[in-house]
Write a structure and sequence with these properties.
Blueprint (H helix, E strand, L loop, with lengths): L1 E4 L10 E4 L9 E10 L2 H8 L15 E9 L11 E4 L2 E2 L5 H4 L10 E2 L11 E5 L3 E3 L6 H6 L1 H14 L7 E4 L5 H12 L3 E6 L2 H9 L4 E4 L5 H8 L5 E5 L7 H6 L1 E9 L12 H6 L3 E4 L5 H12 L7 E6 L3 H9 L6 E5 L1 H5 L2
């Protein structure tokens, strides 16, 4: 089969699309004929190399994909050939204290398909049964591939970890990205007043279209100062910050007293100054969040499948152009998700 892969960490030039050993399912796995995959910023970090993460090379990246079931392992009970499925990438042990209490995304052995183990950007992929969700007939493959990781991440961030309530105010940073555009929609759905940042008029227009009440061009103005102005110096109740070092100090400045920053990542770096003086004086909270539990995944994807939430697709490319897909992410081109399709599928469209 053909697969996206890299043999060494490095820049986009290490990405290849070529022959790879055929996938076959273990007892608890399902073999999926991949119709579409989607990229996330973790694909960029995995390619570059992440401290403490040792990968078997060559590595196939990709945490998001959707397709049809081809074959099932002998212990699989939930799926059969012909079923439509999408990947939910978080893998948990089911046995540690956190799993026993239903907090699966806090599992001490938690890892992510595509980031820590072989991913799913290939013509076929063997995926654990527990990491697949059903995709209803009528949902297109691009939507099914693009939705799971970013919408489950944003759902848990805002509603479970952030405890967002109707009537509160939320600032979403990087609203044009995958998690960002999902967070805008979820905050609007929850009844919040939504502020969103992006870097162009086009992106700001898209953010408004998916639910933002106020938009801020962070390249043209100081977003923290603008938030204070728009809120009559009060600040917002919550900031969704997955950017990290470049934005964290201003995220704290944007908060009302008693507010909280919720973070799921740090694309510009993980080690900003703590800002402890502002945190204790304004009684702020900094809350971490990773992926979601299976129940949270089901809840948010039901709202994707019925059209309440819409994964925006900025571009669809053949998998042989995955390097270009990485470039779109790294250069922050466009709004929403980048989807890649096996070349054999792409050519038949």
């Amino acid at each position: 089969m053909k697969a996206v892969q890299f043999r060494d960490h490095g820049d986009r030039s290490v990405i290849e699309y070529g022959d790879f050993p055929d996938a076959s399912p273990d007892r608890d796995e399902v073999l999926v004929d991949v119709k579409a995959g989607a990229l996330n910023h973790l694909d960029v970090w995995t390619r570059k190399g992440m401290p403490g993460v040792d990968l078997d090379m060559p590595h196939v990246p990709g945490s998001d994909a959707a397709g049809t079931v081809v074959e099932v392992g002998e212990d699989v009970t939930r799926f059969e050939p012909g079923d439509r499925v999408a990947v939910s990438a978080g893998v948990y042990c089911g046995e540690c204290e956190y799993c026993r209490h239903g907090e699966y995304s806090m599992c001490v052995n938690y890892h992510i398909i595509g980031e820590h183990v072989r991913g799913v950007h290939s013509e076929r992929a063997a995926v654990p049964e527990d990491n697949l969700v059903e995709v209803p007939t009528g949902v297109d493959w691009e939507t099914a591939a693009a939705a799971p990781l970013v919408f489950q991440t944003a759902w848990r961030m805002l509603l479970t970890r952030g405890e967002l309530e109707a009537g509160e105010s939320v600032l979403v940073l990087g609203a044009s990205g995958g998690v960002g555009h999902a967070a805008v929609q979820i905050a609007d759905y929850a009844g919040a007043e939504v502020y969103a940042t992006a870097s162009s008029e086009e992106k700001l227009g898209y953010a408004e279209a998916v639910g933002a009440d106020h938009v801020i061009d962070y390249e043209a103005e100081d977003f923290a100062a603008r938030v204070r102005e728009l809120t009559d110096k009060r600040g917002v109740d919550m900031v969704v910050d997955h950017v990290g070092e470049a934005t964290y100090p201003d995220s704290l400045k944007s908060l009302a007293k008693g507010g909280r920053v919720v973070t799921c990542g740090a694309t510009t770096g993980p080690n900003p100054g703590a800002g402890l003086n502002r945190i204790f004086w304004n009684q702020l909270s900094v809350v971490g969040s990773t992926m979601a539990t299976p129940g949270e995944v089901d809840d948010v994807l039901e709202l994707v499948w019925d059209g309440t939430f819409e994964p925006r697709i900025r571009e669809v490319l053949p998998m042989s152009e995955t390097a270009r897909a990485h470039e779109l992410l790294e250069s922050r081109e466009g709004f929403g998700k980048v989807v890649v399709v096996p070349d054999s599928e792409y050519e038949s469209r």
